[in-house]
Amino acid sequence: MSSSLPSYATGVVLYKPGTNVTGTVIDATSSRILLSLPGGVTGIITKKERSAYDDGESFEPGQEVEAAIINEEDENGLVVLSLRRASQDKAWSELHRMMEDEVIFKAKFYEANKGGLMAKYKGLRMFLPVSQLTPAHYPRLGSANGAAIQSKLEEFMGQEFAVRVINVDRERDKIIISEKAAYADRAKKTLERLSVGDVVRGEISGIVKYGVFVEHEGVEGLVHLSEISWDHVGDPQKLFHMGDSVEVQVIGMDGDKLSFSMKRTQHDPWLQHIEPYNVGQIVTAEITRWNENGVFVQVDENVQGLIPLSDFGVEDHQDLRLREGQEVFAKVLAINTESRRLELERVSADEAAAASEKSAEDATLQAALAAANAVLEGAKK
After folding, report:
1. pTM above threshold 0.70
2. Dihedral sign from CA coordinates of 293, 298, 304, 305
């Protein structure tokens, strides 16, 4: 609002409602403040119009005060003023500037609802939506229960977060702030630095049924249930707590959406389980299930294999006449570390027996050679 007041040769100053004026305090009580205004006029600020918020500010005679004009003259000939409106005008202007300059400041929360948190700036209400919270504060509850979300957000009452103003609309009396935006630069730098394959440390920022979220230097990624461990994981809540420090590998990046893996930072025990197996080796396995991809078999307690449907003389798995637990013989064609199973080819019982007999002969020959070498080494000594 303008603080200039038109004057005329007669010395009369016109006080226009909606503008601001600066005056000097004549007297101040708990119920009103009297100001000396340009042109020898007196202005009054009532208790209601004293302040938009209880800041405990005191006023002394001689102090200069800026106030908004409400009424050019009341029944007592006083100009009716509002410190509250002038304060709000100033606050709105400051918030506009803070938004444009991307100023980061602290907001203290006094109220929560299922949609977010409420704070104040010089008496003006500001809203921080749930979607604008950082991963560390985002309420992941595994459900859309409004009461549960509100209860979680109420834990932040009285706390201060670093935030930025992202929307100011005085006509609608709306001020939106964002914690996420306050850390946007940090997140951007982290994303620019990260690459798929990097191993980093982070903290557990969310635990859900399908995995855990990990925050790393302002960005967050999901560790899917299947990427937590090489072993089966049923309920991640039994393994982790919020704030736990963990090591993860970046396995996917799509904009600011990251995918992490914990198990890929650890040795895969399956690699030890397959050490006894070699390409060309004949194995005995039990059928466990089948589908359009082939017949799945259990080679031993820790190793599975896959045999193509064509080895059973069918193209459609629904034409198979098999039973779970049925024993089959198969040859190892490949060791697939990606799918973590053996690629197999079905062989007949005769082929398996012949291979077993040859294997036994090879073992006997190897034992004989070892014994001969031992004798020769002994003779040299």
Report:
1. no
2. negative
